[in-house]
Amino acid sequence: MSRVILAVILFLFLIASDIDIQQRQKSTSLAQSQTANLYASQMLLLADMVNEYRHQTGVQDGVVPLDQLGLPFSPDSRIQYQLQQGRLWIWMPEQPGLIDALRSRSRGSALIGTLSGGQLIWLSGMATGLIAPQNVADGNVIYLN
Q1: Dihedrals φ, ψ of 119, to 5°?
Q2: Res 13: pLDDT
Q3: Is 119 exposed, middle or buried (0-12, 13-18, 19+ CB in 10 A)?
Q4: What whole-number distance in Å separates Cα of residue 145 and Cα of residue 141?
Q5: What is the pLDDT of residue 16?
Q6: Structural domains in the chain?
Q7: Strands in 4-126 per DSSP E
């Protein structure tokens, strides 16, 4: 009889620990998703503000100082940007969920990729032939505009 009770208690303990693990995984996933959405929103708003600035000033190359953009926030320090030959490159190191968040927030933009061997690769796997600014590291997620 005591073995049956012990087996039932052990079974209930296993069920309870599995439920706890699932709840922690959901919490972690939700936190990662929220963080990725924040980074994606910052990258896209930064793109909008730099584009507005460059259309007003005609700037085609370089980095526009953040204080010139009138951003209502300070972007995460890992988000970098640069105008190069008339293209706006915005990038940051890969974060869990960042690519999906960028895709969603940009309404399915095809201008999202990663850097591999110094070259921008679209999410489709196609090489663009574009050479990224020097300070973009392999594996970084890039939004090109």
Answers
A1: -120, 140
A2: 61
A3: middle
A4: 13
A5: 63
A6: 2-144 (3.30.450.360)
A7: 80-84, 87-92, 112-116, 119-122
Distance CA 111, CA 117 (A): 18
How is 54-81 classified by DSSP, letter by letter?
A: HHHH---SB---GGGTT-SSPPPTT-EE
pLDDT (average), residues 114-142: 92
Q: What share of the chain is helix, strand, coil (3-state, %, to 5)?
A: 45, 20, 35
Query: What are the pLDDT digits (tens) for 16-39?
Result: 666 666 666 665 555 667 899 999
CA 103/CA 41 separation, integer angstroms: 11
Reported as type and span, the H/E element at residue 129 is: strand 127-131
C-beta separation of 71 from 45 below 8 A: yes
User: How confident is the model at residue 118, as a pLDDT?
Assistant: 84
